[in-house]
Design brief:
Blueprint: H1 3-21, E1 26-30, E2 35-36, H2 45-58, E3 60-61, H3 62-74, E4 79-83, H4 97-101
Parallel strand pairs: 1-4, 2-3
Length: 105
């Protein structure tokens, strides 16, 4: 498992754990996709410029992404919900309580 996948799994576990402790609140773990932001402006030009070119073709603006993410948060009644790039629910199996409560080795 890569570090990025571990990060995503840990965030899923934390959202589910918080949700189990506070069932009346809703928790959303969003996967917005590639959103163009000003991050990376401090990178060297030989990395920044190709990244800017690629992002022009494959990314969406923050203005396009924001309504989808807001809808993802509004649709949740309580509990945990992973949402995709358009605010839709992403089918993910929940982590079982014994896996969430188990301390790291």
């Amino acid at each position: 498992m890569t570090g990025f996948n571990q990060l995503l799994a840990f965030q899923d576990i934390m959202m589910q754990w918080f949700s189990s402790r506070h069932p009346d609140l809703h928790f959303t773990h969003a996967y917005p996709g590639f959103v163009y932001t000003k991050n990376g402006q401090e990178l060297p030009w030989y990395i920044r410029e190709p990244l800017r070119l690629v992002s022009w073709f494959v990314s969406i603006s923050t203005e396009q992404c924001a309504p989808h993410m807001a809808r993802a948060m509004d649709d949740t009644k309580g509990g945990w919900r992973p949402s995709g790039s358009k605010g839709e629910t992403v089918p993910k199996p929940p982590w079982t309580a014994d896996r969430v409560e188990k301390p790291a080795p």
